[in-house]
Amino acid sequence: MDSKILDATAFYAGIPFVSNDSFMTTSIVYEEIQHIKAKQGALEMLQQTNRLQIRDPSEKNIAIVKDASIKTGDSTTISKQDMSIIALALENDCELITDDFAVTNVAKQLKIKTSPLMTKGIKTVGKWISYCSICGKEFSKEKECPICGNKLNRKLIKKSI
Q1: Which class for 140: exposed (0-12), middle (13-18), buried (19 or more C-beta within 10 A)?
Q2: What does the UniProt record say this protein does (predicted)?
């Protein structure tokens, strides 16, 4: 049976606690969610029954994810935890369970299968750009227009999936 990769949201939604599937997550996501059901020992039980494995991806795959997040324009909004689960899904050729748009956008760029939790999922992927609504210039990493000082807006240049 193939494992599915879970982000923190999947744990908060209770997915691994109501399923007999096998799951994986990374150590930094596990640290983030280990307070969930701590009193009942639910996470420990999932690990003892091999329904939850904690694994960390290679630095090579994390670098691939970082590069992809730069290409999609998600590098400023994606967390280390997010990068780690995308890299783990890439490394193990597993499905990724998430509702996070940036995670899904980067994962789709890397041809990783994703499934939504509580949403319909995203229908379009693309590249985020930052632009100044006053002077109309586009920027890649700035949060403020270096020309006029206006706060930059973001928009997604879409491509259908």
Answers
A1: exposed
A2: Toxic component of a type II toxin-antitoxin (TA) system. Processes pre-16S-rRNA at its 3' end (the D-site) to yield the mature 3' end.
